[in-house]
Amino acid sequence: MKTKYLLLSASLLTLLVSCNNDDDNATNGAQGKDIVLQSHSTTPNFLKTTSSFSNVDVYPILSSADQLPDTPNFIYGSMADGAGLMYNQQDDNFMLINNIEADYSIARITLDNTFKPVAGEYILNSDATAATAQCSGSLITPEEHGFGPLYLSGGEWGGASKGVFVTEPFKLVLLVLLQRFLQQWDNGVQKMLSL
Questions:
Q1: Quick one: pLDDT at residue 178?
Q2: Please, what sign has the CA dihedral across residues 139, 143, 147, 149?
Q3: Which segments within the chain are labelled E, that is strand?
Q4: pTM for this model (two decimals)
Q5: Cα separation of 137 and 140, whole Å?
Q6: Pairing between strand 164-167 and 105-111?
Q7: 169 CB-contact burial (10 Å; exposed 0-12 / middle 13-18 / buried 19+)
Q8: In whole angstroms, what is the distance from residue 97 CA to residue 68 CA?
Q9: Nearest to 163 by CA among 128, 195, 193
Q10: What are φ and ψ of residue 109, in 5° steps?
């Protein structure tokens, strides 16, 4: 009984000491100063809010019907799921890393400093995931975790893998295409060598 009490007390003390009150340490930095809360999508808002959320405004910012100015051929896939948002100080914009569950991939959406989506690209495609649906996601940042940035995405259904996928948020899309090509080339060489 004494051991349980001691363990409970130590756990509670650890919990209280390790928590920070972020409100007391707030700073008003440059990031986010130009954000304009407004709808950017051509798709209207279909979310109905109840009286419990009467002070909440909903702004659709992106749908698969939208065409982004910097990447007009990018189509925002279906069933958006886990996500991570980070400020890109170098370019003064935001990056939304988002699982596209039914497309078995992860997309990177660039939002300008007003929070308007301007570009989109897939940084992990269905070839790399072996057609595994990407579900829950978590963004790892140096500020919060001491290393990163990395994006963790959990495989949920389909495909050959049910593991966790680690993706670099700043990954060049050329590398995604190159890896796809090299994988096919590598498989071709392996097939030729086995003949």
A1: 53
A2: positive
A3: 80-88, 93-100, 105-111, 117-124, 134-140, 150-155, 164-167
A4: 0.70
A5: 10
A6: unpaired
A7: buried
A8: 16
A9: 128
A10: -110, 125
Cα–Cα dist 57/45, whole Å: 10
pLDDT tens figures, 95-143: 999 888 888 888 999 999 999 999 999 888 777 777 777 888 889 999 8
pLDDT at 35: 84
Q: Break the chain into its structural domains and give their ranges.
A: 57-194
What pLDDT shows up at residue 26?
Answer: 45
CB atoms within 10 A of CB 80: 19
pLDDT of residue 108: 93
Q: Based on the number of CB atoms within 10 Å of its own CB, is 146 exposed (0-12), middle (13-18) or buried (19 or more)?
A: exposed
Two tokens, residue 69: 């100015």
Contact (CB, 8 A) for 135 and 99: yes
pLDDT tens by residue, 7-62: 566 555 555 545 555 554 445 555 567 788 889 999 999 888 899 998 999 999 89
Question: How many other C-beta atoms are found inside a 10 Å radius of the C-beta of residue 84?
Answer: 22
Q: Residue 148: CA atoms inside 13 Å, Cβ hemisphere, count?
A: 18
Check whether the bond before 149 is cis (ω within 30° of 0): yes
